[in-house]
Automatic annotation (TrEMBL), chains A, B:
Keywords: Flavoprotein, FMN, Monooxygenase, Oxidoreductase. GO terms for molecular function: monooxygenase activity; oxidoreductase activity, acting on paired donors, with incorporation or reduction of molecular oxygen. PANTHER family: ALKANESULFONATE MONOOXYGENASE-RELATED, C2H2 FINGER DOMAIN TRANSCRIPTION FACTOR (EUROFUNG)-RELATED. Belongs to the NtaA/SnaA/DszA monooxygenase family. It comes from Arthrobacter crystallopoietes BAB-32. Residues 33-379 form the Luciferase-like domain. Pfam families: Bac_luciferase. NCBIfam families: FMN_nitrolo. This is FMNH2-dependent monooxygenase.
Length: 437, 437
């Protein structure tokens, strides 16, 4: 694994992943509706030779007072960003619970044409009733139901992408536009979806957009094992990362796939300084902007209980074990792990969660952060990272300008793009039509 | 009406609206998946000071042998095209039958931000069972059901666009991101849709994307009267245009709205030549590329019966009256009208239908075509046209370079854009939050 190419995504979110990032005097909060802002960030990540930019997504407005949540819709934003860049991959979250597979497969295939083969799909099942209630459902379907639906959704999307062969467009001006024998409709009539036609987009440059997945629950890990071509993981520290990495790679092998081709990329929050002290001061300054009330509300959504009256300087009250928790498992397991390892006060826990909600945070000089990154990647914890800049654009600039050059000098990160598609950046083969997922 | 500004959309479709356009030796058939092709066309239309480019849409692959149908998905294509242009409007068809209103309202609002206020939505109810069967429905809902659903869909979309006030984003770094009292969730629970939240996109530059509609049936005309801000019409000749125009303007007034603000824009196919003979030769050359078998199949979809064994040089057999026809009314009425006025053979009817499926065709010198355009617009037939270039890029180039200058010299067409948004091009006010549709 040590000799392998590291992989980095730039996970763009609001003014940065720290929930107080927008409160800084210099924050770009006025520009979250400006496509130029995202185009510039994608350009920075491309300058840093990242594999991709990465967007989360959600379907409710959240608490409009607390801070920015969503603004531009990711698929429309990625199209513009595709035209402002030429090499970097572009990954969007698309929910398998709120779309039809035909819509999702079609828009992603269209973007793969527009970007000349740089699109990835982070498939999620969504989680909040407030989102369900914007799309006609009284409440979210149960966990198992969502994952059953997601598996069928992915299966249908893959077959839609394969419904035109690569050589279907014959463009014979005296004869056929496409060879009808090479356009093969699905006849899918499953528990969740009816799709009885071929896609209305010819096969795209990558054949199929790259499939990212981020499940942490049993069902999520099994879905990743079956389908994911890259995995966005959550791990608070190296032991947690190693446990997840070993488990999910084992499941991929058990599903009959080659685990070496599936990059596991934990989320990573970084604060970089010329000295350790400077980096720590940057982190502390940002934490100090955090209104406690909002952080307690955020914690409440993570653990799905009201903690608005918790005493800030008291130890965190005991939480139910993961087996009794019905919300998203990954972050909850991280919170339990932070509590177990750090025995924090409520205030300390809020600080850890404020940026990235419990993902790993690395704070230090460029060399120290590069050391940690290499350690994770040589000791079975990661194949790269989904970088979650706490402060935009600063934290992304710093990582590209100061950490990437260290990793390039030391060897594990590319000094130029070897290929033009996201599949090529990730070392993934272009799938043949009809190949098993 | 004579003194009013004419309006033009450039309706982009494949290699042009003539169904044999792709068969020309010089056709751009190899480039229908290249976003640069559409960006260049949008640039041409912007050079011609058109109000907007316009995309149709559909959800099935059609007959892949016969010719190009869909390739890029319009909303993703328009985002890139928004970044390649700066003033021209960008209108996409979005089906009210296959989306949820939250998705549609969200993507269109996002595009309105990305384009700085240049997005329009052509709302359709879709028509083919093959489309329904890609989105989980066994067959298309009935006509009345589709229009009931569309009215509720539009109503919900308008209210979602109004769910953030224009001044909701206070961006107070020491306080609120958005003023919670200015973000007002819908609580809509109707026959077709549940939407129980606010949009997750702050209000967009135009307040609401511009609503286009194209219904020709009773229900379609009534929907247009209630909601449309511009209308894409089908009229084979001036009397048909005048009848439609008078009827729909009367209905708009009856719905309590000002008919002068709603531009009626019939589809228009043009062949331009230095002489009439040259223009006619261009048209005949294109018609000659038409494989008869494909044209008969196309006619069969228009009239919803098998006419593959019709005798080409015999008169068109009698067709059922419009009242007995259950498919899309506008084109069917046009076919009946062509038969009544022209008494054509089957071969002649195929020629008229091959470009634009029975929309008006004007063939002649730039001055002759400008005469016809002015006549339609000064005699109560149109407020402008949805130009359907039969051959791309040629027919659009010719119109922009040769017809537009004549209309500019004579007065009824702009010589520069007066505003920056599609609403401004169309002379439409920016709607206040909560204003009646």
């Amino acid at each position: 694994m040590a000799a392998r190419q590291l992989h980095f995504n730039a996970f763009l979110f609001g003014c940065g992943h720290h929930s107080a990032a927008w409160r800084r005097p210099q924050s770009p909060i006025e520009h979250l509706g400006d496509i130029e802002f995202y185009e510039r960030l994608a350009g920075t990540a491309e300058r840093g030779l990242f594999d991709a930019v990465f967007f989360a997504d959600g379907h409710s407005a959240g608490d409009p007072g607390a801070g920015p949540l969503w603004h531009l819709e990711p698929l429309t934003a990625l199209s513009a960003m595709a035209r402002a860049t030429s090499r970097i991959g572009l990954v969007s979250t698309v929910s398998a619970t709120f779309h039809t597979p035909f819509h999702a497969a079609r828009m992603l295939a269209s973007l793969d044409h527009i970007s000349a083969g740089r699109i990835g799909w982070n498939v999620v099942t969504s989680m909040f009733d407030a989102e369900a209630r914007n799309h006609g459902l009284a409440a979210m379907p149960g966990h198992q139901e969502r994952y059953d639906r997601a598996a069928e959704f992915i299966d249908v999307a893959l077959r839609l992408w394969d419904s035109w062969t690569d050589d279907a467009l014959v463009l014979d001006r005296q004869g056929y536009y496409a060879d009808p024998s090479r356009v093969r409709p699905l006849h899918h009539d499953g528990p969740h979806f009816l799709v009885d036609g071929s896609l209305n987009v010819p096969r795209s440059p990558q054949g199929r957009p790259v499939l990212f997945q981020a499940g942490a629950s049993e069902q999520g890990r099994d879905l990743a094992a079956r389908y994911a071509e890259a995995i966005y993981a959550v791990a608070y520290d190296l032991p947690a990362a190693q446990a997840y990495y070993a488990d999910v790679k084992r499941r991929i092998a058990a599903a009959g796939r080659n685990p070496d081709t599936v990059a596991v990329m934990p989320g990573l929050v970084t604060y970089i300084g010329t000295t350790t002290a400077e980096a720590k001061a940057k982190q502390a300054e940002t934490d100090a902007l955090l209104p406690t009330e909002h952080s307690l509300a955020q914690l409440g959504t993570f653990i799905q209980q009201d903690c608005s009256d918790w005493e800030l300087d008291a130890p965190v009250p005991p939480l139910p074990p993961a087996s009794e928790f019905t919300g998203p498992q990954g972050r909850y397991a991280t919170i339990l792990r932070i509590i177990e390892v750090e025995r924090p006060t409520v205030r300390q826990l809020l600080g850890w969660l404020a940026a990235g909600g419990g993902h790993c945070t690395m704070t230090g000089t460029p060399e120290q952060v590069a050391d940690q990154i290499e350690l994770w990647c040589t000791s079975g914890g990661a194949d790269g990272f989904n970088l979650m800049p706490p402060l935009l654009p600063d934290s992304l600039d710093e990582f590209v300008d100061r950490v990437i050059p260290v990793l390039q000098r030391r060897g594990p990160f590319r000094t130029s793009y070897a290929g033009g598609t996201l599949r090529e950046h990730l070392g993934l083969d272009r799938p043949a039509v009809g190949a098993l997922a």
